[in-house]
Design goal:
The chain is mainly α. It contains eleven helices and no strands. It is elongated.
Amino acid sequence: MAFTQQQLIERLKKHFPDPKIELNYENEFQLLIVIILSAQTTDKKVNQVSPILFKKYPTPQALANADLKDLEEILKPLGYYRRKAKLIKECAKAIVEKFSGQIPKTLEELISLPGVGRKTASAFLVNAYKIPAIVVDTHVKRVAKRLKITNQTNPEKVEKDLAKFFSKENWVYISNALVLFGRYICTANKPKCKECYVSDICPYEKKDL
């Protein structure tokens, strides 16, 4: 590796000193649901729909008992809205039945919930409780490959490589920072290398300088 984690974090902090998830939420329950809803759609769309959803179904109990057709109607602006309606209803039901209405605080328990995979669980732990976890979405995967921290495509293998490179006390920071960095700077089609503070240490061959 041509650079250290410290060198990389220093540069990322120039872009994102205090990175936060861009989904709006008021409590842990809302956070988990909006992360599930954000799959294959934009955070902006989820932020438009979620206030309507939570006004009508403010608790896991209320959502567990929701009418599926009504949920589909609310979630219609999102991609895969039928599947998402079913998943959030089942997830709320599991929270009520398995965890007495409390959102669990471990990765293992979270991924036992319908609709919650490793990425969702990690994003939840990092943002709800500042519990160290590594979020690997499409942005993080792309950035990690361009920086040559990984050459893997499988998200769990990418996660392992990131976990080796970054020490645990930095996981919370990099989970949000790398998502935003990939979303706004190291973009898929035309990375903004000219305005990127990481470009001086970045080994990516196709830099747009």
